[in-house]
Amino acid sequence: xxxxxxxxxxxEALTKTYGSIIAVDNLDLEITEGEIFGxxxxxxxxxxxxxRILTTLTKPSSGHAFVSGFNVVEEPxxxxxxxxxxxxxxxxxxxxxxxxxxxxxxxxxxxxxGKMKMHIEKMLEFVQLSDRAxxxxxxxxxxxxxxxxxxxxxxxxxKVLFLDEPTVGLDPxxxxxIWGIIRRINQERxxxxxxxxxxxxxxVLCHRVGIIDYGRLxxxxxxxQLLKRTGRFVVEMLDDDRSKARFFKNREDAxxxxxxxxxxxxxxxxxxxxxxxxxxxxxxxx
Length: 286
Ligand SMILES: Nc1ncnc2c1ncn2[C@@H]1O[C@H](COP(=O)(O)OP(=O)(O)OP(=O)(O)O)[C@@H](O)[C@H]1O
Ligand SMILES: [Mg+2]
What we know:
By secondary structure, this protein is an alpha/beta fold. It has helices at residues 47-54, 76-81, 98-108, 113-126, 142-154, 172-188, 199-205, 223-228, 251-259, 272-280, and strands at residues 7-18, 21-32, 36-40, 62-67, 70-71, 83-86, 160-164, 191-196, 208-213, 216-221, 233-239, 242-248, 265-269. The strands form three sheets. Strands 6-7-8-3-9-10 form a six-stranded mixed β-sheet, sandwiched between helices. Strands 2-1-4-5 form a four-stranded antiparallel β-sheet. A three-stranded antiparallel β-sheet has the order 12-11-13, with helices on one face.
């Protein structure tokens, strides 16, 4: 008998409107325990709104959402107890130290002091900030602040971690450092729901990727399957200063096509940007 795997996050026809804007449009999602799920989409696609609904901060206009089996509207306190959130914008207190920021969060969650102290130390070490525990957060770099937000979100040992654009604006090295932390959290602790508009982040970090555009889920699969939708190899030709692309299932066909051309062309592997263009006619980041 196949075991029944219950989804940790589930949405049913979830919709959020702001006046005439449909921020989230009939979203049906199921995310199982242990996944790193990536929500990929351009600015204004509805990523943050979805995160806010799932983390009980925004009420949906219609439809339902469940986290750990709890309806986020009917049982927000229970739903929230198993959730850690790293919001899109930095919201750590610069006038407090890293340690004090975490202590404040632990107190707000009603953590018992002995346990809280142990967890603060463990989490600071986990995000490699132990040596800066007593520094004021206003002296931190953006990447350090993001890491502190991750530590804060994990302090009460949530089963699900929501990361809204965890690496936006960070340099490539810091981005990779955060990816390493996310992978370790996933291996050791939690299911991850992350939003991003970085193609590479979705491709290399996430087990499954949902592509969202104008509030609608337009594709959902493992990256490899999404990539097969375009053809795995791309021939890019420079034509009148515009790049034109043709897609091929394998490198041999792409090579034969290039050999038949009378102009320069490159062969590269396709990426999720190509998939997004194929689905919408636009780039993720314009
Ligand atoms: N509080 C609000 N009031 C009115 N409109 C809103 C509000 N919050 C979001 N929206 C609108 O809903 C849509 C989705 O916004 P959302 O912030 O969820 O997008 P996003 O995918 O997170 O974008 P970004 O990549 O820029 O963070 C946008 O059109 C936005 O203008
Ligand atoms: Mg957003």
